[in-house]
Amino acid sequence: MAVDPDHVLRSAAALLTRKSTATMDEVAKAAGISRATLHRHFAGRDALVRALETLCIAECKAALDAARLDEGTASEAVRRLVGAAEPAAGLLAFLYTENQLFEGEEQNAGWSLIDDRISALFRRGQLSGEFRIDLTPAWLTEALYGLIASGAWMVRSGKGAPKDFQHMIVELLLGGALRREES
Known about the structure:
Elements (H helix, E strand, L loop, with lengths): L4 H14 L5 H8 L3 H7 L3 H23 L6 H12 L3 H8 L12 H19 L9 H21 L7 H13 L6
């Protein structure tokens, strides 16, 4: 019986977003395969996490495309982006805590491309006068990642309703990012 690597990755993602400390045995069981079969596809946890990173980057790129970042106001684009990113939020939350992804000089170039697109959105909002200029686009980008991860954790733990995911993230982010008229 052939093993579908996409099924294995999505099963691993579903498990690890609920239980980040799951063992390779638990991942194999969730995917409906043996541990030996899992190890034939992923030599160990690090290889599995790297494959999940690639999956998450692809899902984030798809969310960026779906959000149409260049259309409408920057605030509207941020709202669309958070909504489009929601399906990948759990995986992003898991990866956000995986330190091995950020060790050394070799960060996956896919993250840089995503960072650049999101930072450009925040820069556009600053240039249009929507967003504060004292917060760098890089800072706002990292804040967005952190809020998406936190939103995923809140929903997963039952402390937040799924229907509130987009609203809570956008309102907190933009409530702190909107430019205020000085008195």
